[in-house]
Write a sequence for this structure.
């Protein structure tokens, strides 16, 4: 039981979900956790800010060590619990390189996804432009096609090859997110297969966003 | 001699510089390398695109393995050459966690820096707003103050504590970049001390951007 760990999180947030998947893969169940609502702006609450001064979720603590960056928390868990649960960093240099390549490319993917999905949240009303919306959507389309291609050309069912790795831990929540926001499964069959197959992986099932279980997603990305 | 490695790079680019520092720290001198000009848009040349289809620099190759994401290349080198040159990932869990925290927070720093420095490059003329420029500059100021505070409260001369780590490898080029773009050394004394002290570290000296040696920087950030 991971009683020396604490996670403050929000439902549906890819960064939070990543850390939860890593914890599950490392058999670190039973950690202290508390769910906060983004809608109610609870990520800006005193309780969150005390652990994460940026007022963002996740906020993660292991003993005295605070690690709020989701990629950082996942890498830390993979390193500190190397021989516990799933081995998340492959030894093979080529697979390891592919894992890092996909993990960090996914930051670009996340950025482009955010530029589309959070446009009205991020850009004040007087500064919005249809031309920017169009450009952002085109950039996201090109990016999603890249990832569809990666899975098509890949040498296994996972992002870095034949085994589940940190690349899947950090990228899966973003893939799930784009489908939640209406991406067409028929148009992106490889991404859809990846999304649907991994849905049943125990770590992902156990950490599935609770707010997604009983509500419909949105259709922001249906024409992408 | 690292003759089985190739780096395509551009002068002054923090992502390229990171990889070069990591190579130096791991005593991997003598790699094949080629300098490209961003001004002449050579990062979109066939030669670069063949190795990095995103048309970005760096592009990095080790034997058959291509790894173009700068964070990924640095982590790969730290892992594959663990016991060669500088140990870049501390064993101590608290220092390791701090290293990851600072590394990944630096992505936010880099984003905010780019929002200011590349504003006219990234935003088409008809979509520019003084209110956005002002907001971006305020966000960058708050971010730089955070980092000044980290160095003030830190328990050593480096970003993750008493030893040089991957956090310094990936963040130093961005710190140097903001000073190159005119940040006031008097207003940020801890960042300035960090910047000036590490200037003389062999890995950093050896990889200093050649275009910075014989030209003046800009003053974009002088009022930040």
């Amino acid at each position: 039981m991971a009683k020396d760990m604490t996670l403050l999180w929000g439902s549906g947030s890819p960064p939070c979900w990543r850390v939860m998947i890593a914890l599950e893969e490392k058999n670190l169940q039973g950690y202290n956790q508390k769910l906060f609502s983004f809608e109610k702006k609870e990520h800006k609450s005193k309780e969150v800010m005390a652990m994460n001064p940026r007022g963002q979720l996740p906020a993660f603590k292991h003993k005295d060590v605070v690690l709020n960056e989701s990629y950082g928390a996942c890498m830390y868990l993979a390193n500190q619990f190397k021989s516990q649960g799933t081995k998340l960093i492959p030894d093979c240099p080529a697979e390891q390189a592919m894992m890092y390549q996909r993990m960090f490319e996914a930051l670009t993917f996340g950025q482009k996804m955010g530029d589309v999905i959070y446009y009205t949240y991020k850009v004040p009303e007087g500064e919005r432009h249809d031309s920017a919306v169009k450009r952002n959507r085109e950039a996201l389309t090109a990016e999603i096609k890249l990832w569809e291609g990666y899975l098509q050309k890949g040498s296994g069912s996972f992002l870095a090859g034949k085994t589940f790795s940190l690349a899947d831990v950090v990228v899966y929540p973003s893939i799930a997110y784009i489908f939640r926001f209406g991406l067409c499964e028929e148009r992106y069959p490889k991404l859809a297969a990846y999304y649907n197959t991994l849905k049943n992986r125990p770590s992902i099932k156990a950490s599935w966003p609770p707010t997604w279980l009983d509500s419909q997603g949105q259709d922001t990305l249906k024409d992408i």
